[in-house]
Amino acid sequence: MCAEDWYSHDHMAMRLKELEDKNPEVRYSAAIYLGLVGQESKDDERKEVISALKRHLYDTDKFVRYSAAGALAGIDTSVKEVLPILIEKLKDKDTKPDTAALALRHFGPEAKEAVPIIIDLMKKEGIDYSWGTPISHYGDVLRDIGTPEALAAIEPLKRRELIANAFYAPFDLLLQPVFALLTSLCFAGLFWRSRAQYKKGKKIKYMPLLIPALSWGCWGLYEAYEHYEHMDSFGGTVFIVCWFLFFATLAGVIPWLASRLRGRAQEKCKPAGSAPS
Length: 277
What we know:
This protein is an all-alpha fold.
């Protein structure tokens, strides 16, 4: 189907007709489509879609009821009849409860009856991690519902988020362009200082091309990750190169720091009045 036909009036009329089809699978598919298109349609068309979907909140097929309720939740949260149906879907072992939970988040505290069920689902799912950041889809739903019970249930998740944010705060600072430039200049200064010390006879290890790349590697990594979903082959290459720069830079910074500390320790251990090495 052409993109311009997807939201056309004729296609919507066809789907409204399919919503009355005898086959429940056709009605189910039509309800999902109307839920997507109804959000972008004009007022008159949206009213027609809402009216049609409301009739199927009492469909004989439970999957059609579920799809109609989910579709209405995304179009018009004033239709409170969808709440018991979405809660019914949460309890139904034949379906995935995550879609019902995501629909319930639109209703805020009005979905308080679903909170105990969503809390149990969150406990069963556990907390996942993405790039070191804790993630819980059900936790996000509870956060949006916002009742005291829901907010109390996500306290462990909030603590983990706070720890992750505190850990990443220095890196977030490095990712800003101005600080990236200052960090590069700082590392470049360290390189020239260590080079001068090396000429004086002090054994300082350094990797001049790797150390200043830290901040720019971080910034490139951030840019690549920010557009990760729309990444083409070139973007994927940039992503890999930035990771390489980041770890290669650490491979240069760590030996420099270790040798620097070792040199200071050796100077402290030398007897007073001995010649420097």
